[in-house]
Design a protein that fits this description.
Layout lengths: L7 E5 L4 E5 L3 E6 L7 E3 L10 E6 L4 E7 L6 E7 L2 E8 L8 E20 L2 H4 L4 E5 L2 E6 L2 E6 L5 E3 L2 E9 L3 E10 L10 H16 L9 H13 L1 E2 L4 E2 L22 E2 H12 L5 H13 L10 E2 L10 E2 L13 E2 L10 H15 L6 H17 L18 H21 L5 H18 L1 E2 L4 E2 L14 H4 L8 H13 L1 E2 L2 E2 L17 E2 H13 L3 H12 L11 E3 L4 E3 L5 H14 L34
Antiparallel strand pairs: 1-2, 2-3, 3-4, 3-5, 5-9, 6-7, 7-8, 8-9, 9-14, 9-15, 10-11, 11-12, 12-15, 13-14, 16-17, 18-19, 20-21, 22-23, 24-25, 26-27, 27-28
Helix pairs in contact: 3-14, 4-5, 4-6, 4-14, 6-7, 6-8, 7-8, 8-9, 12-13, 12-14, 13-14
Length: 617
């Protein structure tokens, strides 16, 4: 049986990442980028599809896992019959080639250890040619090459590289795995101990710039570190998760590739970082955005590759059995071709909030925002696939229209507050038109609630965003009615579902876990409505789902008591950070709050920043 999703920890170098299991096995690693083919794919198949395990030989129990201080350096400690041994895993922040470093340390007694390295390129399908090399071995298959360096003598066994060795107290045994293109010269060697020191220093310095000082700072900072790890440093793009095809329902088909940069996901990750003092990431992300959507705004996509690539063709990988037999395993994402109106609102809000946080408005960025707003003016009244990327028919999703209003609203505010040139009269008129349409067609008086789409009687957790983005104030009866309806109809065992998959025509078989960000949005609504005790109780329940190293996936299966969905999930960690920020404030009401779409007076330079944790898929 595979490990549970919550049994994994993350290490990465801000260009790719590995998942390390509590059993000492690296079961997922894509090289050289997040969205490259995996060389360790046991997570979605079997050990024969690639993994690297280091653990005590024979019996041994993992007694403790932790990240060293506020870093992404993982330490796993094992209790064996003859002593205690620890494995330190990390990926040095990259200069040229990606490296995975594993250092085995004896802490007590004398412990026999076994390493089992099974390399399989192209998602577990390509067995490399392996030969001895100076200080280790070299594995090559097509364009991929991996060098293993270690003082431990290794041997081949059943198309794997294995070794047994013994460590005594105080002894340290290093392993360094380095990827490079097979037709390029080999990269320079890594000194594992120097790399460890440098990696600890790099992450420690980054974490030290966090400005959050509220409750549960440990979990907030751990979430921020995870979000930073999902940032692709060369371009500034931010991936939604480091995995593909971890199921939203065990044994189901809702298995998607999240190793790409959704405009929505990236903008909300950016807001979480900015609100905790990390403005460098905002500058890098704005550069990525301008490059990715350059050209005709009518051709803007909802997601791109980490470098800004547009073609993300979706296909299935039939030789992988899927996590706990959850098929199919998918690579690429066909949703990249969908029309999702709400992304314009997220992008406009992120640009506005970044400017309010101190980033000088960029003329090119304002030109892009004007072009996107012109697009919204033309298409806001068209149906779309919506925030959840349904594979059924397009609809007039209420949340999509609300976010179209946000796109117009933030553009108006940017022009007013920063003295930018804009057709304010026209934008203000269209903003009012969108607001009126949502209030007329998106609200059902019989349910006393906003509904998933115009003319529908179904509920949707994305409606919890209405007060958070300032579309209506939290004390509006329609907002309170919507929150009450969601509590009554979309809560399962204390957590919030996105919507009822058994009733909504989303083009897929029903069944999924509770989408964790939805519960964070509900906690945010409680805070906005002055119900602090309920907000804190729900936040505590959600924080309790974090695994032993502070990580969360996309969803939670209350029946099985397990995390499900891609892992770690940027949106979930954005939700945790944003809710913690809201709960740490004396007055959580967003500065953007207004009634019926009327703009408030211009905010002064010391005005509080609103915190949003708006949704993803």
């Amino acid at each position: 049986m595979p490990l549970r999703i919550e049994d994994y920890a993350l290490v990465g170098d801000c260009q790719t990442a590995a998942l390390v299991g509590a059993d000492g096995s690296v079961d997922w690693l894509c090289l050289p980028r997040f969205d490259s083919a995996a060389c360790f794919a046991a997570l979605l198949g079997t050990p024969e599809n690639g993994r690297w395990r280091i653990a005590p030989a024979g019996a041994g129990t993992c007694t403790r896992r932790r990240y060293v201080d506020d870093t992404l350096v993982l330490e796993t400690e094992w209790e064996a019959a003859d002593g205690v041994v620890a494995v330190t895993d990390f990926m040095p922040v990259r200069e040229t080639a990606p490296d995975l470093v594993r250092i085995v340390e004896g802490r007590r007694g004398r412990v026999p250890v076994r390493t089992d390295l099974t390399l399989r390129f192209d998602y577990g399908s390509a067995v490399p040619w392996v030969r001895k090399a100076d200080g280790g071995l070299l594995a090559v298959a097509g364009p991929d090459a991996v060098r293993l360096e270690t003082p431990v003598p290794t041997r081949g066994e059943n198309l794997s590289t294995v070794a047994e060795f013994t460590v005594e107290a105080g002894e340290r045994v290093p392993f360094v795995l380095t990827w490079f293109r097979s037709y390029d010269p080999e990269p320079g060697r890594v000194d594992p101990e120097a790399a460890l020191k440098d990696t600890l220093s790099w992450w420690g310095e980054w974490a030290g710039r966090c400005t959050y000082r509220g409750d549960r700072r440990d979990l907030v900072l751990r979430s921020l570190i995870a979000l930073k790890a999902m940032t692709y440093a060369p371009s500034g793009g931010i991936v939604a998760a480091v995995t593909t095809s971890l199921p939203e329902h065990l044994g189901g088909v809702r298995n998607w590739d999240y190793r790409y940069c959704w405009l929505r996901d990236a903008t909300l990750t950016l807001l979480a970082l900015v609100n905790c003092g990390y403005t460098d990431e905002a500058r890098a992300w704005e550069g990525w955005l301008l490059r990715a959507v350059a050209g005709d705004p009518r051709a803007a996509q909802i997601m791109y590759g980490v470098g800004g690539e547009r073609r993300l063709d979706e296909y299935e990988v039939p030789w992988l059995a899927g996590y706990e037999d959850s098929k199919p395993v998918r690579v690429g994402n066909a949703a990249s071709r969908q029309f999702q109106l709400d992304v314009y609102g997220e992008v406009a809000d992120a640009l506005y909030q970044a400017a309010r946080a101190g980033l000088p408005p960029d003329p090119t960025g304002w030109a892009l925002q004007r072009a996107l707003v012109r697009r919204v003016e033309r298409v806001w009244d068209e149906p779309d696939e919506g925030i959840w990327e349904v594979r059924g028919p397009r609809r007039h999703f209420t949340h999509s229209k609300v976010m179209a209003w946000v796109a117009l609203d933030r553009a108006v505010k940017s022009a007013e507050q920063f003295g930018l040139d804009a057709p304010l009269d026209r934008w203000t008129a269209v903003r009012r038109q969108v607001h009126d349409r949502v209030c007329r067609d998106g609200f059902d008086p019989k349910l006393n609630s906003f509904v998933q789409s115009f003319g529908s009687d179904l509920l949707d957790a994305s409606l919890l965003m209405i007060p958070q983005v300032g579309f209506l104030p939290p004390d509006d009866p329609r907002v309170r009615g919507t929150v009450a309806a969601i509590e009554q109809h979309l809560m399962r065992d204390g957590f919030v579902l996105r919507y009822d998959t058994s009733k909504s025509n989303d083009g897929l078989p029903p069944g999924e876990g509770a989408f964790l960000p939805c519960s964070f949005w509900l906690a945010d609504c409680y805070a906005l409505m002055g119900e602090a005790a309920k907000a804190r109780e729900l936040f505590g329940r959600l924080a309790g789902l974090c695994n032993d190293v502070g990580l969360l996936s996309e969803e939670y299966d209350p029946g099985a008591g397990r995390l499900v969905g891609n892992f770690p999930q940027a949106f979930t960690h954005v939700g945790l950070v944003s809710t913690a920020l809201n709960l740490s404030r004396d007055d959580p009401t967003p500065a953007e709050q207004r009634r019926d779409g009327e703009p408030p007076p211009p905010a002064g330079p010391g005005a509080p920043q609103p915190v949003s944790s708006r949704p993803g898929r």
